């Protein structure tokens, strides 16, 4: 007994090395290395750009910092510094190629310090980072991100501009060793010629012209080399939904599509899909800015969801993507958090109208009833049909009108938009149209008597989800209310029992904040949401949905940790089309082989139209 206790005691008091000797925890190694690489890169870049430190009071400090300030060493310092800064983010994301590049660059910087600067301490710092990288090499195994060769154009523009700016600083950082007083245009010419390896009009004394020339040449070579690498490296296209994946998803939706109103949106062509080992469930996603963003609940059998979620997380780990889910239901959020350990936050509520309970009578529906009656008195007619029942010519005219009536330069939508109107693949979808007969003495417009349209995608066998709302700007206000009412009234004939309308972000906060007795925190939060509604129509969409007295179903966003929320929000804005970080429009490549999408906003309504309707 005493021997056992002594043994246990000896294990408890066993000596452990201090935390600072053991180094960072394995999960924090990439972040630590990325930060260290950025610091070393910044010091190299600063030392190369400002060589005058060598002859100032900072000389003693510069002797112990990585980098070099003389001629060839200055050029090498600039190149290594810029590349380490560019690779820092890849190191934080455990990218294997970033690790390989850093391991190759650090010896170059180390050799420059020993040969040209004789800086033993600076070489030791570079060697320490190199050894640390090699020691933890197993932590850097993430695969490359989806990419295209058009990033080479962006690299040439961005890095070329940065090289020109750094070059201007280098040329102007020797005012006391410049012959004469060169003008700004002279310095500009000197930088431009120097980037291509030629002498410019600015002259220096004491050998500074060699330092400036080598540095400018190194910047130009760096821009050219990285652009060439991006242009000729193997292309990894963004994940797209293959025909086989779409067929498998349609089989799952046929059996389990009634469970989630957002399920049909998994068939967007710009999404990828991972399936469970049994093939009975799938998670659809899109990768944006390093975020692996899934939308809605997994497709398929709930019991098979954990297998699909596990595959999703494995894919995220393999590429070092940030996993996230937007717009999942409460059941989906519970499964996601249980299986992955992630957290969930209520994002908003989805408005669902039960057809059997819908009526225009009563005081609560007076505004909608009066608006619909007024429009009908003005001569408008409505038609609600399955997409497969439309003639090809009429469907083409509706598609053309929807594109023409779009009020944004880019198509919007991701989690709650399908992105197309197709009678062959989506024949069960429903289209509601509003028409105003054209008098015989007037010339019809390009779309005939068509004035507004709405597109609904299937939600199982007995439901539909609103996907698209468009109208002619010359039409009377209230077209959206008119068509929603028409769709609800025609639903019984189409054997539809429930209709999913728009998604209201932070609806519960807006509702609680305006009630009597609301606390100061919720009132301040509601005020912030109303302020943001000037750009994103948060409040107006909630009020628009509330007109139809729906039942509200909460939707959630699932995330790994709180510090990922800004990044996930940025990726979601890009996915929904509210924010673009790509190439300028003039440099974009159009893809004529793909059908033009017809998606709309994340809330499944035209924002400006909802504002007008809510008013």
TrEMBL record:
Q: What Gene Ontology terms for biological process does this UniProt record contain?
A: phospholipid homeostasis
What is the membrane topology here?
A: Multi-pass membrane protein
TM region positions = 29-50, 70-91, 98-116, 122-140, 152-171, 212-232
- Looking at the record, the residues that make up the Phosphatidylglycerol lysyltransferase C-terminal domain are 250-558
The entry lists its GO molecular-function terms as:
aminoacyltransferase activity
Q: Does this UniProt record's set of keywords contain Membrane? A: yes
* Stretches for region Disordered: 592-615
Where does the record say this protein resides? Cell membrane
Q: Which GO cellular component does the record give, naming just one?
A: plasma membrane
Give the keywords, sorted. Answer: Cell membrane, Membrane, Transmembrane, Transmembrane helix
Feature: compositional bias, Polar residues:
602-615
Residues annotated as domain Lysyl-tRNA synthetase N-terminal transmembrane region: 27-177
The record's InterPro entries line, in alphabetical order, gives: LPG_synthase_C (IPR024320), PG_lysyltransferase (IPR051211), tRNA-synt_2_TM (IPR031553)
Taxonomically, the superkingdom here is Bacteria
Mind telling me what this protein is named? Phosphatidylglycerol lysyltransferase C-terminal domain-containing protein
Identify the taxonomic lineage of the organism of origin. Answer: Bacteria, Bacillati, Actinomycetota, Actinomycetes, Kitasatosporales
């Amino acid at each position: 007994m005493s021997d056992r206790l002594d043994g246990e005691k000896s294990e408890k008091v066993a000596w452990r090395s201090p935390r600072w000797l053991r180094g960072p925890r394995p999960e924090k190694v990439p972040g630590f290395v990325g930060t260290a690489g950025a610091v070393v890169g910044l010091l190299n870049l600063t030392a190369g750009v400002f060589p005058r430190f060598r002859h100032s009071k900072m000389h003693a400090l510069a002797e112990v910092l990585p980098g070099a300030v003389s001629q060839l060493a200055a050029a090498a310092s600039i190149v290594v510094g810029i590349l380490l800064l560019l690779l820092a983010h890849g190191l934080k994301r455990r990218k294997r190629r970033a690790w390989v590049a850093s391991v190759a660059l650090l010896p170059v910087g180390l050799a420059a310090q020993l040969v040209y600067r004789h800086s033993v301490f600076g070489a030791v710092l570079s060697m320490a980072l190199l050894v640390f990288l090699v020691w933890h090499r197993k932590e850097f195994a993430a695969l490359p991100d989806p990419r295209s060769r058009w990033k080479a154009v962006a690299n040439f523009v961005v890095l070329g501009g940065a090289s020109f700016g750094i070059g201007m600083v280098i040329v102007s950082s020797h005012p006391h060793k410049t012959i004469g007083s060169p003008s700004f245009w002279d310095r500009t010419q000197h930088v431009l010629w120097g980037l291509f390896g030629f002498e410019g009009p600015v002259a220096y004394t004491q050998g500074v012209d060699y330092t400036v020339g080598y540095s400018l040449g190194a910047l130009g070579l760096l821009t050219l080399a990285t652009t060439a690498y991006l242009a000729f490296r193997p292309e990894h296209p963004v994940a797209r939904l293959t025909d086989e994946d779409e067929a498998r998803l349609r089989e799952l939706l046929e059996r389990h599509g009634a469970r989630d109103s957002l399920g049909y949106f998994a068939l967007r062509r710009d999404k990828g899909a991972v399936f469970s080992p049994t093939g009975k469930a799938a998670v659809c996603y899109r990768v944006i800015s390093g975020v692996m963003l899934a939308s809605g609940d997994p497709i398929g059998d709930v019991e098979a969801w954990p297998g699909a979620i596990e595959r999703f997380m494995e894919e995220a780990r393999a590429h070092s993507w940030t996993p996230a889910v937007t717009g999942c239901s409460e059941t989906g959020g519970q499964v996601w958090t249980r299986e992955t350990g992630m957290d969930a936050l209520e994002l908003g509520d989805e408005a669902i109208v039960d057809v059997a309970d819908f009526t225009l009578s009563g005081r609560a529906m007076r505004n909608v009833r009066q608006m619909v009656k007024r429009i009908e008195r003005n001569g408008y007619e409505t038609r609600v049909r399955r997409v497969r029942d439309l003639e090809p010519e009429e469907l083409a005219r509706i598609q053309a009108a929807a594109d023409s009536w779009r009020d944004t330069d880019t198509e919007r939508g991701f989690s709650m938009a399908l992105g197309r109107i197709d009678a062959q693949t989506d024949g069960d979808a429903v289209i509601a149209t509003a028409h105003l007969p054209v008098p015989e003495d007037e010339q019809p417009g390009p779309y005939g008597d068509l004035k507004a349209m709405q597109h609904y995608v299937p939600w199982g066998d007995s439901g539909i989800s609103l996907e698209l709302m468009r109208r002619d700007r010359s039409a009377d206000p209230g077209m959206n209310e008119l068509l929603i009412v028409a769709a609800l009234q025609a639903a019984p004939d189409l054997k539809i029992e429930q209709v999913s309308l728009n998604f209201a972000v932070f609806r519960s906060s807006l509702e609680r904040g305006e009630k009597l007795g609301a606390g100061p925190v919720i009132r301040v939060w509601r005020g912030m949401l109303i302020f943001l509604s000037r750009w994103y129509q948060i409040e107006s969409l909630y009020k628009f949905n509330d007109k139809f007295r729906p039942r509200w179903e909460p939707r959630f966003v699932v995330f790994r940790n709180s510090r990922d929320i800004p990044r996930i929000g940025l990726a979601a804005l890009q996915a929904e089309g509210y924010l673009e970080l790509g190439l300028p429009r003039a440099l974009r490549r159009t893809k004529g082989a793909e059908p033009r999408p017809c998606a709309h906003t994340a809330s499944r309504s035209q924002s400006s139209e909802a504002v007008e309707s809510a008013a």
